[in-house]
Amino acid sequence: MAEVKAIVLRAAGINCDMETEYALEAAGASADRVHINRMIEDKGLLDGVHIVVFPGGFSYGDDVAAGKILANQVIHHLSDALRKFIDEGKLVLGICNGFQVLVKAGILPGNNSSKGGQNVTITYNDSGKFEDRWVYLAPQTERCVFIEAARQIYLPIAHGEGKVVTYDDEVLEQLKAEGHVAFKYVDENGQEGEYPVNPNGSVDSIAGLTDSTGRVLGLMPHPERHVRHTQHPHWSRLEGKKEGDGMGIFANAVRFIRENF
Amino acid sequence: MKQWRFEVFSRGGFADVHGNGVLEEIKELRIGSVEAVQSARVFLIEGDFDKKFADRVAKELLTDPVCEEYYIGRSGAPAGLAKATLIEVHLKSGVTDPVAQSVMTAMADMGIEAGNVRTARKYILLGDISQSQTDTIARKILANDCIEEFVIGNEAEPPSPHLKPYELKIVEWPVCELNDDELVALSKEKDLFLNLVEMQTIQKYYKELGREPTDVELESLAQTWSEHCVHKTLKSSVDMTINGEQIHFDNLLKETVFKATKELDKEWCISVFADNAGVVEFDEDSAVCFKVETHNRPSALDPYGGSATGIGGVIRDPMGTGLGARPIANTDIFCFGLPDTKHEEIPKGVLHPRRIMRGVVAGVRDYGNRMGIPTVNGAIYFDDRYLGNPLVYCGNIGIMDKKKCFKNPQSGDVIIVVGGRTGRDGIHGATFSSGEITHEYETIFSHAVQIGNAITEKTMLDVLVQANEAGLYNAITDCGAGGLSSAVGEMGKDLGAEVDLEKVPLKYTGLNYTEIWISEAQERMVIAVKPENLKAITKIFDDENVESTVIGRFTDDKKLTLRYNGEKVAEMDMDFLHDGVPKYSRKAVWKSPALSEPSIAEKDNYNDELLQILSRYNVASKEWVIRQYDHEVQGTSVVKPLVGVTNDGPGDGAVIRPKFDSDRGLAISCGMNPMYGDIDPYWMALGGIDEAIRNIICVGGRADRIALLDNFSWGNCRKPETFGPLVRAAQACYDGAIAYDTPFVSGKDSLNNEFSCEDGSKISIPSTLLISAISIVDDVNKCITMDAKKASNLLFIVGETKNELGGSHYYKIHSQLGANIPKVDLETAPKIAQRVATAIAEGLAVSCHDCSEGGLAVALAEMAFAGGLGIEADLRGLPRSDDCSRLDTQLFSESNSRYIVEVQPENYDAFAKLMLNLPFGQIGKVVEEKRLTIKAESGETVIETTLESLKEAWLRPLAW
């Protein structure tokens, strides 16, 4: 097949675009960083693209709420184009601020609940502060094309607003029942736990969500920050050189496109 | 236009994180009567829309539909509650409100143009609170007086945002006919901070011109000649008396710090002490530049805003070095008063150190994290003498094209200001930072505080990187202290410049031409662009909504000409502005203090002392701070600030790998110990250099590519006895740089850090020299960390332990200072650094940690608990001086140039061979059992404790 093309979306305050571009390229895609203004001017920029990534950062300073202003832009300018993109079988990944954007734009979890409207959100950490720390993630779904269902992974988080909450318990039960939970925070042995195992107090330790197609993934941890051996926080204690755990997410996406396009 | 008011609250069942945070702070102020705090975000939006659209705005934009709810209009106090006090906090007129701007943008996306948007915060305090308590809470916790005002109660209207427009009126400040007293009085009245000699020099210049200066001319001179901008103290001639002996310097800096750099003359030093940051080679194609600044005074008044603009400002230094670097790492070093200081001991006009620390950390966190620059290295020191003058050092490293390390502005280039708009913020910042702080400064100088907006800086960075790659400008510099005056003045120094001040985009109307020229509003850069590139560069900026404006052009008349609406308001010779500042001579005195060693009874067990030292604020874990900084953004981290088996051990230096396609790395570290300055600032400075170098070496940095930065923060240097220690430290910088073969490439000073209390007493900071270091790592895969790696590995110590407990933590816990300050053997220390670096590069070491604060015992404890492995140490292997026979000295002496190295048994011979002729010895081994055991020379066990108790002692004090 032809080359796998990816776009990393930039906007005011987005700041993880370069390393995300690097991770995609290291996984075999050809990636470009594109400013949201260009995308709004010319939706044709999505033509021929297979993967769109909303990277981390503080889009528009997280003014009003994290990811809110960029989500508002997506809703008013890009929702149709993105819907079409996803329906064509292509992939969307939101990392950290990008995850917040996808949730606040209603693209994730995309569960069309009976209540209508956005019924899941991402809010302030229980600790009340920004934290950079490493977490273990246990996959919860076999549907999501970015994820290997049996593989627990180790990635860093770096956020102040990463707590996933639902409007009520019913919404939470629906998320679980319909397989929207992509990752949970766990300890080294795969067990859920209190802070800091669950670093932000997310309900049910939710770290990431996927939509009903399994082709959209959003997560708070940063896979692009663990693509190389030397990014592991104590790599100098480990035997041998291993690819970073985050690489799997990008490699799976590239493989899916190769197999399906 | 109708003004709509929206209030957004947390929905029941969801935590009010902000309100809870405020409640916690109120409790910290020991006001027990507040039972709960509810917070709300308030939006005041002017617009021609109906209730239906207002509901949409509230629902779709302002309120999170899951965890918040809204109220349109002004909500009253919650029903059924006995007593509620309402406080609303608004930004003062003219203060930038980024959230309001974002809301306007978002509303435009929704199809409605809002007229004006303002935001506020509303607090409902529940409980029986007195009026004075309400006032205290509002002032100390809720509102920052520099930029915010509060209204109590539900009826008060917020201040009007509308300002009067400005009408040109050219103002002269006559000097020609003034006598000396009147000159001094004028300088004082206008906050110029110019002394008599400077005022006389200015008078002479204008007498020769045959006219009086305008206000903007005097302000420009005051700014350009300020201590902050020209470092007149450090460049002055000095008559120094050291213990009765006289020495003389014609120019202190040139004969100490600069001189070392000049003599070392490294070909890898590209641009030193010339540009906004020092530039050194990174690899064949790239260079890196490094700058560390202080932002002490603004942080004392407004910890959050002061530190945020501190980091924001220093980031613009690499961005404005050469033709611009891309920032890749931040460093932060702070000095505060003791966090457990009693409230009643806090002098008037001073914030509690805990509050300062929280604010400073939050400011650096929010600005650095938003910029997407990893904060990789830092330190925090506590001493009660930092109570009135906390120190906030912010550093930034940038990477740049090696071919673009120099600026080249040309006559005819247009002057463009890019980024943020100009407001009244930060006026007199440069001059303000050159005087001393008094208990009244808070009110007098509130206008000197700048207000930062990281996203404005980030968007500006995004477009400048593109413009640089396209080669569309000839020069770039930042508007830092001194604003446009400094930026344009510096860039046009050898050319001449003319500026039309009415063209400068303003945050709000009403600024006069002088305010425009000297404002230190943040997030602005000035570039010089060939007229033919104007269109292309403007497109790059416009494409990403970054404002850029042509405000003038560079000429060839060597004059600075300022106009407002075509009328000339200033015309000065560049030579006078930049080189007219008179030379100073100063006196300095150093007399070694009469100190003696205490007599402390020897014991046969030192568990308690070790635990006490681990719990001292200066030694204890800074994890609470470090985790609030994103140290991994950009994906470059190799050695993070927290290391070890559970990612929480105290890393020595940091290593980043700035290029995705190369394994070459940068090691970054710092060294500083103000406590030693009380004994001798010469050895303090050398100790700082040795420590910074040790921290580079410990992680795998090269010993032969280390570049240093100096940052002097001192008390009132007009006092010879305060200036003397600085001269001593500067001499040490020369000696250290030469001995280690490590040039200084950049530096900065912050003098007059003295606080005048209401009763007239003064608190002067301890002499504080920060040494920052940067070096190359050839292959990041060979980096190591300080945590013990594997049971059965051998532990060596390289470097001699001496009878040097002066200024140590061990003496501090006995409330003693002592006399025997740790010295540096300038012959041996560089050899040790070099050999340890070689051992690491050859793969002979698996961990390495230096002995610093707390000495050998603390270093061993840290290695053990960071690695989650026990250590059995035996002092019989310790290389020591003959007079270091006491057990407590061996355990806790803070002698410099010592490294503990973990070596695998199979590498014993190779390592020992490499260390031949250096003082080194096997001091123990790593064991499985999670205990630290240290045996004395006698063979008796003198320290034996679990890792758990050691780590707990170390983690607890600052785990806030």
Characteristics of this structure?
heterodimer, A: 261 residues, alpha/beta, Rossmann fold, nine-stranded mixed beta sheet, two-stranded antiparallel sheet, 26% helix, 23% strand, globular, B: 960 residues, alpha+beta, Mth169, Chain: A, Phosphoribosyl-aminoimidazole Synthetase, Chain A, domain 2, seven-stranded mixed beta sheet
Description:
The complex is a heterodimer of chains A (261) and B (960). The longest helix of chain A has 20 residues, at 68-87. Chain A has a nine-stranded mixed sheet. Chain A has a two-stranded antiparallel ribbon with strand order 5-8. In chain A, helix 3 links the parallel strand 3 and strand 4 (91-95). Chain A has a single domain (5-260), classed as Class I glutamine amidotransferase (GATase) domain (Rossmann fold). The mean pLDDT of chain A is 94. Chain A is globular and about 45 Å long. Chain A is built from six helices and eleven strands. Chain A has helices at 17-26, 36-41, 68-87, 97-104, 169-177, 247-260; strands at 5-10, 30-35, 51-54, 91-95, 120-123, 131-139, 153-159, 163-166, 181-186, 206-210, 216-219. Chain B has 960 residues and is of the alpha+beta class. Among the domains of chain B are: 3-152, 2-Layer Sandwich (Mth169, Chain: A), CATH 3.30.1280.10; 784-960, PurM-like C-terminal domain (Phosphoribosyl-aminoimidazole Synthetase, Chain A, domain 2, Alpha-Beta Complex), CATH 3.90.650. Chain B is 31% helix and 25% strand. A seven-stranded mixed sheet of chain B has the order 17-19-15-20-18-21-22. In chain B, strands 35-37-34-38-36-39-40 form a seven-stranded mixed sheet, sandwiched between helices. In chain B, strands 3-1-2-5-4-6 form a six-stranded antiparallel sheet. In chain B, helix 20 packs parallel to helix 29 and helix 22 (681-699) packs parallel to helix 23 (720-740). Chain B is globular and about 85 Å long. The two termini of chain B are 47 Å apart. In chain B, 58% of the residues are buried. Residues 441-446 of chain B have low confidence and may be disordered. The interface between A and B is large, with 61 and 69 residues.
